[in-house]
Amino acid sequence: MDLRTKRSVFLAVYLLFIFGPLLILLIGPRPAGRELWREISVGIGFFALGLMGLQTLPAGRLPFLRDTYPMDTIYAFHHRISVIAFFLALSHPIILFINNPVTLRLLNFETAPWRARAGVLGIIFLLLLVLSSVWRKDLFIPYERWRTIHDIFVVGMLAFVLIHIFLVGYYTAMPLMTAFWIVMAVLWVGMFLWIRIFRPLRMYNRPYILTDIKQERERSYTLTLQPDGHEGLRFIPGQFAWLSFSPFSIQENPFSFTSSSENTEEICFTIREAGDFTERFREMDTGRRIYVDGPYGNFSIDQFPAPGYAMLAGGIGSAPFISMIRTMIDRKDDRPVWFFYGNPTTDDIIYWQELDELKEQMNLTVVHVIEQPDADWEGETGYITQKILEKYLPEGERNEYIYFLCGPVPMIDPVEKAILKMGAPQRNIYTEQYDVMG
Amino acid sequence: MERIYAFRLLVFMTVAALALVVIFALLQVGYP
User: How many other CB atoms are there within 10 angstroms of residue A129's CB atom?
Assistant: First the structure.
């Protein structure tokens, strides 16, 4: 299935589920109506639950979705939609209270019936979920611990809200509505089993052996892994995978493949130390087992064919491009590639020497842009700007090229604007923000 | 590029859903 079809099918199913409860309310036979605002409140409640319930789908790293959407977009979408769902869910009781202030007594936990208690508990779990996610860093919650409490809050929230709607039982008395929420509950349980049991088991049976650690720069290393007792995986250049020391551990980080996708014997990842997990790689001995969950992502020359490519990287954002360049060399692909590589100082440039060698083997132009150069630096300085891009990219062809951007968020936005100002169309620009997931 | 589509989808979904909710509520209370 090609990318466009895959996306359309997924989107259709996703929207069907999101709008499912509302469509059932609209078309199904239903109990007699009540006041207008009460019905609006109930409709909003059902929609909010549908939104929240489907969050498990894109975040669950399902095999058939792994190359359909870029992971950073999925996570950004997940963050925004969760906040919207939160406010919608909150508006459900608030509208009820305003419409009929007598219902405020349902907030009295001691005297309230269980249908109201479950609703309040659902909202409390949702509130904790949103607060701990939006302000995770401000609350000093370590990433790994946050993932555990995120799971607990999700399970608590979904369970209590399900109890709430079935105990209220007004619209869930409709068989179609009951069936819909049973399907959703099965989906949630299935996703939970997939994420916590089946996916780890699959990884456990497909371990990799660390065969080499090469220091690239002071705090960056390239790991080489070989499949242990299985045929390994196939990826397209630009994709990434999650690495962990145990498949059942929630300690895992995403890294881009840096080897050629034509190399089926071994896979490489370049990592930069950023926190406890990445620092552990430095002390590791070769021969130890590493678990790889992937490949993921669609940030790839294979997904977006073009007569030429401009690759723009900041810091460790160069990793997916090294894989693309190595793959193009292996395939004897002679389409032109411009690689703009921004770094704070020349000491931060990873693959400097290697890029010089790769230039000789393909139609590759490398432009280093250094923020704080030494006195003897003769290359470009400052940031990657429209002026620098126009200086190198041929005027007649550059609007036909595909632009790939990978780096930290503060680098992506201005560079994307510079490309647009140069006249390249938005549809030709693809970005990957590597610090979204961390 | 996908980020822009994702944002548009989000706005579309929310607005469409709220419109459906209002239509449903109006139908339920016997309007028109």
Answer: 20
Q: Look up the pTM and report it.
A: 0.85
Burial (0-12, 13-18, 19+ Cβ within 10 Å), A4? exposed
Burial of A61 (0-12, 13-18, 19+ CB in 10 A): middle
Residue segments in chain A with a per-residue pLDDT below the cut of 50: 436-438
Q: Which helix (H) or strand (E) holds A131?
A: helix A114-134
In whole angstroms, what is the distance from residue A231 CA to residue A109 CA? 58
As for the ipTM of the complex, it is: 0.93
Q: In angstroms, rounded to a whole number, what is the distance separating the alpha carbons of residues A337 and A143?
A: 37
Measured CA to CA, the distance from residue A133 to residue A141 in angstroms comes to 9
Tell me how many residue pairs between chain A and chain B have CB atoms under 8 A apart. Answer: 76
* A229 vs A135: CA distance, rounded Å: 43
pLDDT in tens, A249-307: 877 888 999 999 999 899 999 988 777 777 777 778 899 999 999 899 889 999 999 99
Rounded Cα distance, A57 and A154, in Å: 13
Region at A251 (left for phi over 0; alpha for psi -120 to 50; beta for the rest): beta
CA dist list (Å): A419 to A401, A424, A425: 11, 6, 8
The verdict on A420 touching B (C-beta cutoff 8 Å) is no
Nearest residue to A362 via CA among A403, A329, A318, A408: A329
- Residues in chain B with CB shorter than 8 Å from the CB of A430 are 1-2
